[in-house]
């Protein structure tokens, strides 16, 4: 297999892992105001992702590093042209991480409320902007002959990209609600199930429009097949949630996100960043990649490292597989027990 094709596939796999795993983290953060009635509820919600949220974010670091090493031209054009959206994503992720660690440091209600808002903000902004960014990559952006972005930030806020952002936001919200259904009991569990249903129904409509737009304007036959698979998985997830098949609903939503990401990558291939003003200026897997020797060294490294990373990820989720309940958090006797986020480290 051509190593450029292989690494295009690996980049797609890493972003699938990131969006599936950190996607439900974003969803849990966005769902917190809808499923929590008091501080103990909010602590339960936070503790469902406390031991794993930072591990999930490492997928983004690995994806970014792999993109830089395998396709440096793609990386340079992407991070220079999309500087402001990516900076906003980074700031939001920092605020969210800080909130997890500092929320429990003081008992004042106002102190906690401020960090709760930062968690919601730090979850919603990346969920929206990742969709905007990837939709623009598929749609194409203006590039000069040196592959430099020549547009403005407002060019990125086009209807297709904004619809992509709303789609990812709704997908992650539903994904997070389904994760809470898996990880909680009692009233939070019931509220999360209701939220997953309501958000899921809206997501079906919005995602159908976005995927149809993608396939009709930018897609290929493989993209059409993958988009159809994403649609089927999404509808099946909503149905499974209605039938109280919690594990199936969450798994099917993960497949939905995976197929959706694959649809975008299939729509791109063999380009990695199409030029909307002149196809001759487009970046492809051929003109954006590193040298064959670099890709060869990276391939052997990935062969050794990826199985270890996946094994550690599976082990972590197995260790923290139990549900989190209000009984685990005695707010009167142990006001800082939400420090599971911290203690899990």
UniProtKB/TrEMBL annotation:
Annotated Gene Ontology cellular component terms: cytochrome complex; plasma membrane
Pfam families per UniProt: Cyt_bd_oxida_II
Keywords: Cell membrane, Electron transport, Heme, Iron, Membrane, Metal-binding, Transmembrane, Transmembrane helix, Transport
GO BP terms, alphabetized: aerobic electron transport chain
GO molecular function terms listed in the Swiss-Prot or TrEMBL record: electron transfer activity; metal ion binding; oxidoreductase activity, acting on diphenols and related substances as donors, oxygen as acceptor
Membrane topology: Multi-pass membrane protein
Subcellular location(s) of the protein: Cell membrane
Domain of life: Bacteria
Annotated transmembrane regions: 6-32, 74-98, 119-140, 160-182, 194-215, 221-242, 249-273, 293-320
Family per record: Belongs to the cytochrome ubiquinol oxidase subunit 2 family.
Protein name, entry field: Cytochrome d ubiquinol oxidase subunit II
Source organism per UniProt: Mycetocola zhadangensis
Source taxonomy: Bacteria, Bacillati, Actinomycetota, Actinomycetes, Micrococcales
Name of the coding gene: cydB
């Amino acid at each position: 297999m051509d190593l450029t094709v292989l690494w295009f596939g690996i980049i797609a796999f890493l972003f699938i892992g990131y969006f599936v795993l950190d996607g439900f983290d974003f969803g849990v953060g966005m769902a917190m105001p809808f499923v929590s009635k008091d501080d103990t509820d909010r602590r339960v919600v936070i503790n469902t992702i406390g031991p794993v949220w930072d591990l999930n974010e490492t997928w983004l670091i690995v994806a970014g590093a792999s993109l830089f090493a395998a396709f440096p031209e793609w990386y340079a054009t992407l991070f220079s042209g999309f500087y402001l959206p990516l900076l906003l994503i980074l700031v939001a992720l920092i605020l969210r991480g800080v909130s997890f660690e500092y929320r429990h440091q003081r008992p004042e209600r106002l102190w906690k409320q401020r960090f709760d808002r930062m968690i919601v903000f730090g979850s919603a902004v990346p969920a929206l902007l990742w969709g905007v960014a990837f939709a623009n990559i598929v749609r194409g952006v203006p590039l000069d002959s040196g592959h430099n972005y020549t547009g403005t930030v407002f060019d990125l806020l086009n209807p297709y990209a904004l619809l992509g952002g709303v789609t990812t936001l709704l997908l992650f919200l539903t994904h997070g609600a389904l994760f809470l259904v898996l990880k909680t009991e009692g009233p939070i569990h019931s509220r999360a199930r209701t939220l997953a249903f309501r958000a899921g129904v809206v997501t079906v409509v919005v995602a159908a429009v976005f995927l149809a737009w993608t396939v009709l304007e930018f897609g290929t036959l493989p993209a059409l097949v993958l988009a159809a698979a994403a649609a089927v998985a999404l509808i099946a997830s909503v149905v499974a949630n209605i039938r109280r098949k919690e594990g199936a609903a969450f798994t099917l939503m993960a497949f939905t996100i995976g197929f959706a990401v694959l649809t975008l990558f299939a729509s791109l291939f063999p380009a990695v960043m199409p030029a909307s003003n002149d196809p001759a200026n487009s970046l492809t897997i051929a003109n954006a990649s590193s040298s064959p020797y670099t890709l060869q060294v990276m391939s052997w490294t990935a062969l050794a490292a990826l199985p270890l990373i996946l094994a550690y990820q599976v082990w972590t989720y197995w260790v923290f597989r139990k549900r989190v309940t209000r009984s685990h958090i005695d707010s009167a006797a142990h006001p800082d027990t939400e420090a599971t986020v911290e203690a899990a480290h």
